[in-house]
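re the bet — no i am not wrong, look at it urself. input seq straight from the record:
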Amino acid sequence: RDGFCQNPFFQCLIAEVPEEYKSKEGHTIVGCAVYYYTYSTWKGPSMYVEDLYVMPEFRRRGIGKGLLSKIAQVGKEKHCVRLQMTVSDWNTPARDFYAAMGGQDLTVSEGSHFICFDSQALDNLATEAPKD
């Protein structure tokens, strides 16, 4: 519902192969990418890739690069100036994949930390909001 409504919170691309190339389990959808738009007060319109996944047996065939390139194309059409994502520290193959395409790891150079309020912390923060 969150991505398939009048004002979706996210967009999704899928990678599908012809029936004759389906996965071992019989799937023709072999990859997906979930992204949404953000805004940087310093840089301008931006995009955030929440998830990029390609089934292991279909990796190293250009599918992930195709999905990410399509997101970049969509972003450029909407005048976005950057594409961002978070990659787990342990996921060296993904970090190498993004670096090979020109992605920069800004963890050290920008000195930023990724902060998250979820569950009870989000509830607590919301109760502290000023009354309208």
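see?? Helices lie at 63-77, 92-100, 119-127. told u. also The mean pLDDT is 94. so pay up
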